[in-house]
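Morning!

This is the sequence you dropped in the shared folder:
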Amino acid sequence: MSENYFKTYPNKEGFFKEYGGAFIPPVLEEEMKKITDAYYAISKSHSFISELRSIRKHFQGRPTPVYFCNRLSEKYGGRIYLKREDLNHTGAHKLNHCMGEALLAKHLGKKRLIAETGAGQHGVALATAAAYFGLECEIHMGEVDMAKEYPNVVRMKILGTEVVPVTHGLKTLKEAVDSAFQSYLNDPVNTIYCIGSVVGPHPFPMMVRDFQRVVGIEAKEQFIDMTGELPDKIVACVGGGSNAMGIFSAFLDDEECEIIGIEPAGRSLEVGEHAATMTLGKPGVIHGFKCYLLQDEKGEPAPVYSCASGLDYPGVGPEHSMLKDIKRVKYDVINDKEAIDAFYELSRLEGIIPALESAHAVAYAIKLAQQDPQKSILVNLSGRGDKDIDFVVDTYGLPE
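The structure's back. Tokens below.
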């Protein structure tokens, strides 16, 4: 990896080698340029950085801790550690970039935030940021996800946000992005689209990664302080990939650290039964950027599925696509059953109920621990599972 990695990627056109860019309608080009210019200027200023640091410390409750899973490690072997993003305010890593994006919107004089959400964590985080800064907020969410993640729908409404049900297609995350983009096109001057992951047209993959880098910076320092060394393996779930890029970013130059992103194998690796983009996808364009993409025979985004609403997206961040090609990050899969089993194991052995998204990473860490008990494994526990409890129990039941 280059010593100037974060200055090299993306380039000024927003590309991570062949991935990324901004494939957008002409009507949006001027607004995206304004956002890009503002980000480069404002985000490096002392006042912006100072305000964001204060928010992270006094409002979000950062830094979040790294925790050693004593009983889980004892049962399965290895040394399993968690970066506890579930303890970040609102219960997930999403607030890290939402507060940054909302602060940028404030500096740009925008009056309204708009976004999509799958699992609801990005929606809750953006609704929280809007309430904090006194901005209007509109969140688009597929009807299927609204039913699965109903507690988060209620939280968004309590926070004063308008939740727009998306009723077309599969009624999940991809359709929510389509709907939110269309609404944004109606008034890009007064609105900023706060994308929920390291996806979308430039500058969003870069912006979200940069705001999420705090996770990796903290985790690296904390892990060395706890153990005196770097972790052997770093594991995070990947849908769009924001939590993964957040923690991976700090270890890209550390060649002794194996970095692994975990995608959902869902019910099976048949079409429409999974969202294993890196495993079965190929390069394509979706929502204004180029990435690995699950596609049908016409090159259109293929239907996807995961028990975790935050992972059922046919694309993936362009930076992840590049990291796969250059073989710096390995991408693998965990299926629904393995994720549900890990959901209950972590809950019952450690007293921590993980988000279903995060449970995919925990499940893979358990596999790694069994394979090589000598290794240390750092998992980004990207969110807590309060939002998933009703869905898990109704769908899978309680274990005996």
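Headline: The chain has a mean pLDDT of 96.

More detail when I'm at my desk.
O.
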